[in-house]
Amino acid sequence: MGGPVMCVQKTPTLSFVNAYFFQTLQGYMHYKYRKIKRILFEDLPDTIVELGPGVGSNLRYFNPGTTLLAVEPNEGMHSLLKKNSEKYSIHTKLMNLSAEKLPFPDSSVDAVVCSLVLCTVEKPDQVLKEIKRVLRVGGRLIFLEHVAAKQGSWIERIQRIVFRPWLWFFEGCHLNRDTDQTLRNADFSSLKIESLTLPTIFLPIRPHIFGTAIK
Questions:
Q1: How far apart, in whole angstroms, are the C-alpha atoms of residue 104 and residue 204?
Q2: What's phi and psi for 67, nearest 5 deg?
Q3: CATH class of 12-214
Q4: What is the pLDDT along the chain (215 residues), one digit of tens a residue?
Q5: What is the pTM for the complete model shown?
Q6: Rounded alpha-carbon distances, angstroms, from residue 120 to 3, 10, 96
Q7: Domain segments of the chain: what residues?
Q8: Cα–Cα distance for residue pair 28/43, rounded to 1 Å
């Protein structure tokens, strides 16, 4: 895996700062991610589980009327997530829970969306295990994640330099997790991963992967 195991204390003030930071970035994030997300989310069912939706950056890509089962443990995001859900006509059922233990029965979910989340969860391997548990056979995990840069690259050096302040400010976001390998280790029946270098001003998160895993 990526960086050292560290416990980052979330504070209400920092959580609200992050929420409004991401809300301010909605237009920029849409501009940067729109082509990938339109492809990833073009054929989703009427009910979706999303892990860590934050303030709702993906809502605009879901069909109006979609029921979103939103697993979001960061309370600072909740009010903006509700507001944005109304804006995009998404019926959001908010769950203040951790992704490491999902509140759904075995084999009960058709689709799980996980976007820029596996960098932040405490145990990404456990999260993927839970996703596999709740997905029906043939159910899909749709993912988009920033990942560790290639060893020795200039981006990798930047990731190492800013690792600790980034981890603190973004409440546990690990810049150098090998999420690609974590997904491969999860043993889905089918896994499609594509790599992307995102041309963003946020240099440490330029390396990305995206794709679909099927149970």
A1: 34
A2: -95, 120
A3: alpha beta
A4: 333 333 344 567 788 999 999 999 999 999 999 999 999 999 999 999 999 999 999 999 999 999 999 999 999 999 999 999 999 999 999 999 999 999 999 999 999 999 999 999 999 999 999 999 999 999 999 999 999 999 999 999 999 999 999 999 999 999 999 999 999 999 999 999 999 999 999 999 999 999 999 99
A5: 0.92
A6: 11, 12, 16
A7: 12-214
A8: 24
Q: Tokens 């997790």, residue?
A: 177
